[in-house]
Amino acid sequence: MKRLKISKKGMKQGFKIFISLTVIWGVYALVQLNRQVTVKEIAFDNILSIINKLDGYTVYLKEKGGYEPYLVLSKNYNGYGNVLLLRKYLLDEERIFNEAEGYGAYYEDSKIDSYLNTEFKQTLSPMVQKQLVTSQLEITALSSVGSVGKETTTIPRQVFLLSHRELWQAKAAAAPKEGRILLYSLAPSSPVATTKEGEARPYWLRTPYTEHDTTIWFISDIGSEGYIPLWDMITKDVAVRSVRPAFCIKKDTKLERKEGIVPGKAVFVLKEDAKSNGGKR
C-alpha cells in the first residue's frame, strides 16, 4: 500500500488555512461574547449557537440562599415557544410525592405539585418569579393510573417535575408519553443529579408507574430509571426522594454576565437581576 506524500508547499498551505480559520473563529466568538444574549441562545438544543459552546448552557437564578445554577435545556419546550430550565442541583430536603392512598400516583394537585407551585416558587427572587410563564404540562390522565393506560391530559403549571419520557428516552409499557424527548437526555450521564456537595441522589419524575395507582417513576443515584410505591416497605413510611424543579421562561429574556458568583468567572444571570445586589452561592 502506497504511503500518502504531502509536499512542504501543501503543508504550508494547510497550516495557513488552519490559522485563518482559527482567527475567524476567534473574532466571531469575541463578537458573540460581547453582544446582547437571550436565554434561548444558550439552550442545550440550540445546536447552531456558539454561545452555548463557549459558556455552557447554564444561567444563574437568584433564590433566597443566593444564586443557583439552572440548566437551559430547550429553546422550545414541547412546541410552546418557551425556554425550559432545570435546576442543576437537587433541593436539600427530600420530600414525599404524595400521600400513600388510592390514586396517589396522579400528579395534578399531588403534594409535590402543590409544594413546587407554592413553597418552592416563593424561594425564587421576585424578579425570577416575574419571568415565569405558565406551561401546558402534559401528564398522565387519571383514567390511565393503575390501568396501564396511555391517555394523557394537560394542566397549567409554572413549576413542575420532568417526565419519564423527557428525561429517560427509552420506552416503558407502564410510562405514558408525557411531553417530548429532550435532546439533553441523550447526553452521557445526563440523568444523574447531585446536591451542591456532590452527593448523587435519586429524585422524582412526574410520571406514574401505571400498573399500580400508588407507584411513581424516579431516576436513581446512578442515573438509571426506577419505580417505587408511595409506601416504602423498607422504611415503613411514605417514600421520599429528592426534588429537581423545572420551569419555563420567555425565550427572549435577556441575559448578562455577572462576576462574584463563581470565583474567577463571569456567569450568565437575568439582565434585570444583574442590576440588583446578588449574594454569592
Automatic annotation (TrEMBL):
Q: Where is the DUF6273 domain?
A: 81-250
Give the domain of life.
Bacteria
The record's annotation in InterPro entries points to: DUF6273 (IPR046240)
An example Pfam family from this entry, by short name, is: DUF6273
Q: What is this protein called?
A: DUF6273 domain-containing protein
> Native species of this protein?
Pseudolactococcus carnosus
